[in-house]
Amino acid sequence: GIMSVVSQSAPINNHVVPPGHILMSKCWRGTQLAGHLSKLIPIHYSDGLGIVDFCPSQDAALIFISEADIISGSSYKERVIKFRKVNGFLRGIVMAQNTLTSDEFYKLQRFVCVEIGLAILPVQTIEEAAQLLANLVMCEAKFNSNPFRMKPKTASSPDADLLKTTAMIPGLGDKRVRKILQHFGSLKELANATQETLEEVVGAATASSVYNFFHQSFLL
């Protein structure tokens, strides 16, 4: 059943997130997701996160879009746009529940990645969402090994968006991320690349992962 979560310490003031911990909006207290996550990492709650649902580190933020949000149509777009605007210095990530057989998730994916320029993480179950959040927290805690931290010396906004998204594609290590950044000039160019073009840059196996990321190939 749904577990109630007791934070391992008091809510953090001024949104300070210790390495290895996660900051969650108070609206998630007592939910099934919080219950699963509490078994993996320490949770802190705040009622001052606004539109943000989770902060896996001091400078990263996530919002969660549920299956119901996706089914409802374009209502999630306003939330994503607002999240982008209020994000400020935070690196924004959208976590979305992908349990649909229609093209609704594909529309969401294209909107978030290509039009808005944020990274998107698809999850199917609450358990998977909790594990992914825990992995993000651990990744953020390892400063030097975190691909989010790789910032080109002359990083324009499109470069930063391209970096954020490629860092979240399954199967991409730092070396392949750098190859993609060197070859593709924008997130839109990467999203529209053919699988053959991708294979020339990162090899067949990784090319499939990248291509599927942008073309609704998450098999249920």
Task: Please specify the SSE layout and strand pairing.
Elements lengths: L21 E4 L6 H7 L4 E4 L7 E4 L2 E6 L1 H5 L3 H12 L4 E7 L6 H13 L2 E5 L2 H16 L15 H10 L7 H10 L3 H5 L3 H8 L1 H11 L6
Parallel strand pairs: 1-2, 4-5, 5-6
Antiparallel strand pairs: 1-3, 3-4
Radius of gyration: 17 Å
Neighbour order of strands in the largest sheet: 2-1-3-4-5-6
Distance N to C terminus: 24 Å
**How much strand content do the residues show?**
5-15%
Count of helical stretches: 10
Main beta-sheet annotation: 6 strands, mixed
Backbone structural class: alpha/beta
Mean pLDDT: 75
Order of helices and strands: EHEEEHHEHEHHHHHH
Report the strand count.
Answer: 6
- Global morphology: globular
Helix content bin: 40-55%
Low-confidence stretches: 1-13, 149-158
Write up what this structure looks like.
With 220 residues, this protein is an alpha/beta fold. Helices cover 44% and strands 14% of the residues. The protein contains 10 helices and 6 strands; from the N terminus they run E-H-E-E-E-H-H-E-H-E-H-H-H-H-H-H. It has helices spanning 32-38, 67-71, 75-86, 104-116, 126-141, 157-166, 174-183, 187-191, 195-202, 204-214; strands spanning 22-25, 43-46, 54-57, 60-65, 91-97, 119-123. It has a 6-stranded mixed sheet, with helices on both faces. The longest helix has 16 residues, at 126-141. It starts with 21 loop residues before the first strand and ends in a 6-residue tail after the last helix.
